[in-house]
Amino acid sequence: MSDRLPPLTALRAFEAAARHLSFAKAAQELHVTPAALSLQIKNLEAHLNQPLFHRLNRAVELTEAGRLLAPGTSDAFERLSAAWRATRRLQNTRSLAVTAGPAFTAKVLAPRLYAFAQAHPDIELRFIAGLNQMDLERDEIDVAVRYGYGPDTGLHSHPYIEEAICPIMRPELAERYPTAESLQGAPLIHDGSHDFMSPRADWHAWFAACGLGNPPQITTRFSQADHALDACLAGGGIILTRTTLAQRDLARGQLVAPYPIALTTRARFRLLCVPGTQDRPHIAAFRDWLLSEVRSLPSGLDGKTLISVEDLKTRKG
Questions:
Q1: Does some domain include residue 159?
Q2: pTM above 0.90?
Q3: What is the pLDDT of residue 134?
C-alpha cells in the first residue's frame, strides 16, 4: 500500500462527515451536494482499501479505521486553518483587534481612543470586551489585555505598570472619613472582580494590613469593577479597587486615595500577543502608546506603604 496522501478534498469531506456523523450536514458545511461528498469519501475508502463508515438506515458510524483517522485529520485541518489565518494577517497592518475585560475597556481604553486615533490615523481599532479568554490565533486577536496570575502559556507577555489595590472615594467622603479607623461607619462597596484572588485582596485584608479589626458590613456589591467605580464616582460609597482602573479619575481629582496603606498581589495586568508578532508595527505602536498614556498620569501610589496579600497570609499563619 502506498503512503502517498489522498486528495485534500477527500480528507476534508471525511473530516466534516466524521465530526457531524452525517453526510448531509457535512455536505451543507462544505457547500457541496450529499452525492458529491459521498463520492469523495468512497474515493478515500478506495485509496485506503477499507471502509471508514458504517452506512446505517438514517445515520453513519465510524468504523475502527475511521475512528483512528478522525482525530488526526481534525487536528491537521485546524492547524492548517490557523496557519492560513496567521499568514493572511501578516498582510493586515491597517486594523488591530484588541480584547480586554469590560472594566479595563471602559475605564482605560475607551477614554483614550481619540488620542490613539489622532496619533495613528492609519490603524483601525477593533475592541472585544469580555471576561472569556479568547484564543488569539483562532479568533484573530492581535493583542489581549488580561488580569490575573497566568500562566500565559504559548503567548508573548509584556508586563504592565506597577499598581496596587486601595480605598478610593469622592473627595467629600475623604473629608468625612479622614482616617482608616473612621471607616468603621463608612458605606463600603465590594468589587467582585477580585473574588478570584487567593489570598483575597478584599476589605478584610486591607483592614488587617492597617492593623484594624474586621471591616463594617458591606453596603453594596458589584460583580464588575467598572460598575463599582461608577457607583463610587456617583458618591455611593468607598471602593477598594485597582489603581489602574481609577487612574484617570484620580488624576482629575474626581476621586482620591487618601490612606497610606495599599495592597499588592501577584495578580497583574499583562499585554499578550502571539509569539513573533510583538514587533509588528501596529502591535508595537499600540503597546508603546498605551504604556506611555498610562505612565503619563500619576500612579496614585506615591507615599503609600505597599503590603503584599501573600505576606499578610504568611503573617496570619
A1: no
A2: no
A3: 86
pLDDT at 211 over 60: yes
- The enclosing domain of 113 has a CATH number of 3.40.190.10
Residue 119's pLDDT is what? 87
Statement to judge: residues 102 and 78 lie in one domain: no
pLDDT single digits (tens) 279-306: 888 899 999 999 988 888 877 788 899 9
My answer on whether 291 and 302 are in the same domain is no
2 located within any domain = no
The more confident residue out of 162 and 230 is 230
Pairing of β 268-273 and β 143-148: antiparallel
Q: What is the CATH number of the domain that holds 33?
A: 1.10.10.10
pLDDT at 188 > cutoff 60: yes
